[in-house]
Structures are given as structure tokens and as C-alpha cells.
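2 proteins. here.
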Amino acid sequence: MSDRLDWSDLSERRMSDPRTERTYEATRIAFELGREVRQLREGHGWSQSQLALAAGMTQSAVARFEAGGTVPTLPVLLRLAGALEHRLDVRFMPSSGVVHNDFRHASGHGESNR
């Protein structure tokens, strides 16, 4: 008899960990922001290099952002929004019942503003 977990057990165990949930949420947001920036860039008929130039970034930074490979800072989002002739709108929305009391873990920063 083996005490090894199968994939579904391991997945369920990991997804029940609040740290995994926060990481997943940050990854989801980065992916969705990247997808939206790519759609706006393509709507302008621009290459990644053209957007990078307009936003004061490198092409590789735009590529990583569009792929969801980086969680952007507000200054980066503001530069991208300005280059794409859009206004950045950041809002707090009701959560799906999950309460995150410690922002430091969700953001990756060591301090929070209280």
C-alpha cells in the first residue's frame, strides 16, 4: 500500500492553502491585465516595440506583461494607459467571501498601510 497522493488529492490540498489562493489571484489579475493591454495595443495597430517606445519601456517588458508574466506596479499601468490613450481605473470590488486580513502576503511586500 502506498501513502502517495494522486494529482487530484495534491491539487485539492494545495488549492486549500490560503497562500496558493492569493498567488493564483495575483496571477489571474496579471494575466487579465496583460490580455487587455494586448487587445488595446493591437487595436492601435501597434507592435510591442511601438507600445514600449510610447510607454517608456522595453519591448521585452511589454512582452512579459502581455503574457501575464509580471505583476505590474501602478506607475507601469499608468504609463501603459497613457500610451494607449486610456484612463486607468482601479477599484475595490466585493470578494467572493474570501477575506484577506494581511495584505503583505497577497502583495509580496513586507509592510502594509493601515
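next one coming up
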Amino acid sequence: MNFKEQANQLNYEKVIVMGVVPFKNVIDGNQIDVCNVFIVAPFDESKGAIGFGVAKVKFGESLNAMRFRGIDFPANIEVAFQQTTNSSGKAQRIIKDIRIPKPLNLKE
């Protein structure tokens, strides 16, 4: 099994993106450079919640926010997620790539 090849394979899902927030700054001497994408997600009904919330998902560096310029939010966008983990085994989903369907309501 080729793990690198599998990790680089992109599978796109259609999601509703509510907005994007880039952040680049120094906090306590640490350089922070991130793009957060806010995606509609269903609540975990097993916990008693009903309906939908918004999940914050990382999409690399702040420059990635430029890929969303001109989009009228909320927007239906195709997103390729990747499952990652840290050395403690905590898993998270990040965005690896996006595809913006054409035509999409773009702001002039």
C-alpha cells in the first residue's frame, strides 16, 4: 500500500461555505498564518442537538482566502478534505483544495 499516493488522492465533497477568515499575525512571539473556512455541518443529534451549525476548518495559509474573493456567501463549493493527525493521535480534517463551480454568483 502506498500511503503517500493515497494521502495525495483528492475526493471532492459539495459543501455550503458560510465565509472565510484569513489570519496572519505574531502572537506571543509565534508567527500565525492560517485560513479558516466556515462550513455548514449538522449537529450531533445523539447529544440532543437538532439542526445545523458552522464548523471551522483550516485551509492552509492566509493567502488561500484569496481563492474565495468575489464569491457571494453562503456558497456551494466543492471541497477536498484530508484527514490529518498529530503525534498524540488527535485527528482533524483540513481542506486540501477547493473547486468553485461555474457559474457562481460572483460579486462584480
